[in-house]
Design brief:
Layout: E1 6-11, E2 20-28, E3 31-39, H1 42-63, H2 71-78, E4 80-82, H3 85-100, H4 110-115, H5 128-135, E5 143-146, E6 149-152, H6 164-178, E7 183-188, E8 191-195, E9 200-205, E10 212-218, E11 222-227, E12 232-235, E13 238-241, E14 257-262, H7 265-278, H8 280-287, E15 294-301, E16 304-311
Antiparallel strand pairs: 1-9, 2-3, 3-7, 4-6, 5-6, 7-8, 8-11, 9-10, 11-14, 12-13, 14-15, 15-16
Helix pairs in contact: 1-6, 6-7, 7-8
C-alpha cells in the first residue's frame, strides 16, 4: 500500500450547521485510513463510520496477498478456489482494465515485485536471468473466473494491490451513504473519494520536495496518485521504485507521479498505475473511452518538474 500522496487540505466551503461531523482514523491495507462523515445526527454519523471501518477491515482480510488466511493468498497457494462475490467482482473489473490497457496494469506482477525485494523490503537489483524468470509467469490472462471460483493457470501469482484499496474505498462510501451520511471523505493512504454536495480542496504532493504543488476542487469524485517517490530504493545513484512495467520487469521510467481523477476510487487507483506505465500520450488514447477520467502527469525535465494534463480533471 502506498503512503499518502494526496493531501486533503481543507473544505472549500464552511461546514453546514445542520450536519454533525465525525472523524476517525484506523490502520488497514498497510496504511492509515481516514474517514470523515457528515450526517444530520451524531448517532447516524457514528454508526456510519463504524460500519465503513468494519467493511474496510473485512476487505483487507480478503484481498491481501500477504495475509496467509486471505482469499487471494488461498488462490495463490491452491491455484484456485471458491471466493466471495465481492472478490470475483473485483478481479473481473481488474481484468477488464488489464485488457483495455494491453497489460500496462497486470494483477500477476507479484513475482517481479518479489525479485526486486519490495515484498520483504530487502531491496536489490535482480540480475537479468533472475528477472527473466520472475517475469515469465506474469500474464493476467492466466487468471480465470469460473462460476464462484477463481483459478490460476501456469505459475501466475495474484496480487490485487493496484486495485484493492480503491475498491475498498468505494465500498466504504457506499456503506456510509446507506447508513445516512450526507457528505464525507474516505482517504486510504492517498486513494481518496469524496461524496455529497460539498467541494473539497485536494492537493497534489510535490514528488521532489515538501508540500503540494497544485490544488484541485473535488466534488463527488475520486483521486489517486502513483509515484516513484512512494516506495523506492537507490543503487549507484539510480532510483528504483515499485511501479513496474509488466512488459520489461523494470520500474517504469519517464514520470515522477501520475494523479488520476475519476468517478470511482477503483478507477482512479487502477488507471493511476496503468497511466504511470503508459505515459501521457497512450493514457490519453485510453481516456478517450472514459470522458469522466483524467490525469496530471509530473515529469522531470533538466531538474525541474513538467506538468502534462490529459482528460477531465475537475
Amino acid at each position: 500500500m502506498r503512503p499518502v500522496a494526496l493531501l486533503a487540505v481543507g473544505w472549500a466551503l464552511a461546514c453546514r450547521p445542520q450536519f454533525v461531523e465525525v472523524d476517525g482514523t484506523e490502520f488497514a491495507f498497510g496504511s492509515y485510513v481516514r474517514i470523515r462523515v457528515l450526517a444530520e445526527a451524531r448517532a447516524v454519523a457514528e454508526t456510519a463510520l463504524a460500519r465503513a471501518f468494519a467493511e474496510v477491515h473485512r476487505l483487507d482480510t480478503l484481498w491481501s496477498a500477504f495475509l496467509p488466511t486471505s482469499e487471494v493468498a488461498g488462490v495463490n497457494r491452491n491455484r484456485g478456489q471458491a471466493v466471495r462475490a465481492e472478490t470475483r467482482e473485483l478481479v473481473d473489473r481488474a481484468l477488464d482494465v488489464c485488457r483495455e490497457v494491453d497489460g500496462a496494469l497486470d494483477v500477476t506482477i507479484l513475482p517481479v515485485a518479489e525479485a526486486w525485494g519490495f515484498r520483504d523490503e530487502r531491496y536489490r537489483v535482480p540480475d537479468p536471468a533472475e528477472l527473466a524468470a520472475a517475469l515469465e509467469p506474469v500474464d493476467f490472462r492466466q487468471v480465470e473466473l469460473s462460476g464462484d471460483s477463481l483459478w490460476l493457470t501456469g505459475a501466475a501469482q495474484l496480487d490485487l494491490g493496484a486495485v484493492a484499496v480503491g475498491a475498498a474505498v468505494d465500498r466504504a462510501v457506499g456503506l456510509l451513504k446507506e447508513a445516512g451520511a450526507k457528505e464525507g471523505l474516505v482517504d486510504a493512504g492517498g486513494d481518496i473519494r469524496v461524496f455529497g454536495d460539498r467541494v473539497w480542496r485536494i492537493g497534489i504532493q510535490n514528488p521532489r520536495g515538501r508540500g503540494v504543488i497544485r490544488v484541485h476542487q473535488l466534488r463527488d469524485r475520486a483521486v489517486s496518485t502513483s509515484g516513484d517517490y512512494q516506495k523506492y530504493f537507490e543503487r549507484d545513484g539510480r532510483r528504483y521504485h515499485h511501479i513496474f512495467d509488466p512488459r520489461t520487469g523494470y520500474p517504469a521510467d519517464g514520470r515522477t507521479s501520475v494523479t488520476v481523477f475519476a468517478p470511482t476510487a477503483f478507477e482512479a487507483d487502477a488507471y493511476a498505475t496503468a497511466a504511470f506505465v503508459l505515459g501521457p500520450q497512450a493514457a490519453e488514447d485510453v481516456f478517450v473511452l472514459h470522458p469522466d477520467i483524467g490525469a496530471v502527469f509530473l515529469e522531470e525535465d533538466d531538474g525541474s518538474l513538467r506538468e502534462v494534463t490529459v482528460g477531465r480533471i475537475e
